[in-house]
Amino acid sequence: MTETTVAAIIYKDGKFLLIKRRFEPFKGRWSLPGGHIDEFEVAKYAVKREAKEEINLEFEPVFFGYYDEIIRAEGWHAIVLAYYGKFKGEEKVVEDNVERVKWFTIDEIKRLHLAFFHKEIIMDFLKHEIGKGNK
Questions:
Q1: Beta strands in 2-129 (DSSP E)
Q2: 81: which strand partners?
Q3: pTM of the model
Q4: pLDDT per position as a tens digit, 61-119
Q5: Residue 54 and residue 97: Cα distance in Å, rounded?
Q6: CA-based diameter of the chain, in Å?
């Protein structure tokens, strides 16, 4: 099965906002907010919708990167379009597929086993931010 998904990189003051997944795949693991792109939906609108639906944030996406994930254990192939950007609102759990929402430092993230390949996305983003002179 091939799925096209989006992931929101929400970063502030050296911390990343992650969600704890309530359902499979990867139930109980932390991940970036995001999800499936609906039929005929533009990816940047999908990531805005997912951020609002899952964690109550208004998100203004900027395309960051394309990730090709093959997860054999789950029997699927995911095309992930990652976005970062400005956000506003107070983060909170809105959707029932999210168990918790929490800010993590990069040191904490390095010790976690995230869902999907989201740690790779975060590490790539961090390199990008350091390259721009942001920390």
A1: 2-9, 11-12, 15-21, 30-31, 34-36, 58-71, 76-88, 98-105
A2: 6, 66
A3: 0.91
A4: 999 999 998 888 777 888 999 999 999 999 999 988 999 999 999 999 999 999 999 99
A5: 8
A6: 40
84 burial type by CB count under 10 A (0-12 exposed, 13-18 middle, 19+ buried) = buried
Q: Rounded to whole angstroms, what are the CA distances from 121 to 16, 102, 107, 133?
A: 11, 18, 15, 19
Residue reference for tokens 């050296």: 14
81 touches 45 (CB < 8 A): no
Q: Is the pLDDT of residue 135 over 60?
A: no
List the one residue out of 27, 26, 32 whose CA is nearest residue 103. Answer: 32
pLDDT in tens, 71-87: 887 778 889 999 999 99
Q: Give residue for tokens 């997944």.
A: 21
